[in-house]
# Entry
Amino acid sequence: MSRGEFTVALVGRPNVGKSTLFNRIAGKRRAITFDQPGITRDLVAQPVEYDGRRFRLIDTGGYLPGGDDDILSKVRGQVLRAVYESDLVVFLVDSRDGLLPLDKEIAGMLREREKPFLLAANKVDATEGRGGVEQFHALSVERIYPVSAEHGTGVSEILEEIVSRMPEADFGGEAPGDSDAVPRIAIVGRPNVGKSTLVNTLAGFDRVIASEQPGTTRDAIDVMVHRDGRRYLLIDTAGIRAKRKTEDVIEKFSVIKSLDSLKRCELAVLLIDAPSGLGHQDRQILRYILDEERAVVVAANKDDQWPGPEERRKGLRGIQEGLEYVSFAPVVPTAAPTGKGFPLLFRKIEEAIANFHHRVPTGLLNRMAQAFLYTVPIPSQRGRNRAFYITQAGVAPPSFAVFVKDRRGIPDSFTRYLQNKIRDRFGFEGVPVRIVYRER
# Structure
């Protein structure tokens, strides 16, 4: 979260509708919502524009008092951090449940920190909800905002109050689309391989909850980090298990969010447990990345946990060989808690992003093609087939159009041959190469 922008945090006890209100204001299903307490754990942020003013909205996990549970303690710490870093809090209560002791405790916590807040009574679409609003005057607030996050009732009044409290000169820093110019990097992998720890080490503080308990991360969390004078938007994702092992409905939602993050990134860092080797599920995640045609770097994490140097050498070689059809992806050994390997990791990320957008001049491409394309007959069941011309049709990923006599029935083996030859001549490490055939 950048402190250069006006920030609004949604706070309240579990299951009062914070994520539903967040999605309503953000105008998209950015946070996971489900009728079960404790779904949100990490801070989910989204730029919002209303009436020409911009601010950053933060969804938080349900606030609960102290306890021994590791996850609940970390969720509470995230809520308190959001409160500390926000300029304004929208304190959400459930009008159907009425005023509860925990609501009073949260109000006291906000006043103790001298944090200005708006009290919003949610779920007023129900009869019992409309009747329960008045009792919240016991919290000594000047005004109560009755809302229905699900249906949008009363949300505009809250938004108008938010922008009225923003300084005149403050237009919220970045526009909602400004982050599009920043490289978007999805951190993906199986559960418990260290994705959140990696993100926290790069951020310099515990931006997302990291725990030894698998399945801790549920939403896809955007985290802006700065490294070597450049900004990167990291997307921390939930662990992706095999479909047959994903039975819990919340985990299914989380996996969907993780896969959606591949649609909005340029590059995916596949984090694997290096000493365990490249497993079947790691290869499946690589297929997901290739299906979206994204650049990819493999981070062989937990590099400090090898039994010895010989096991490490053999293990890393086995990981590289096991990539098979994704052999163009660089493998970088890392140790997320200490940041070991991060300089090389970001060097490979930068190279892959540059390759993702690289364009080869047509003249150079065709001169090179004389040796590996025009003089090679194309396997065909329809008689003689040949290529006449090749040009780069696009970038992100690099796409090449090959003009041929007959584009029907060209085998995949020939396409792989072309991809390998293009890589031999022009590199493109870390990115897929797309080949399309067109008839002259």
Observations:
- DSSP finds twelve helices and 15 strands in the chain.
- The CA atoms of residues 271 and 299 lie 5 Å apart.
- Residues 31-39, 170-179 have pLDDT under 50 and may be disordered.
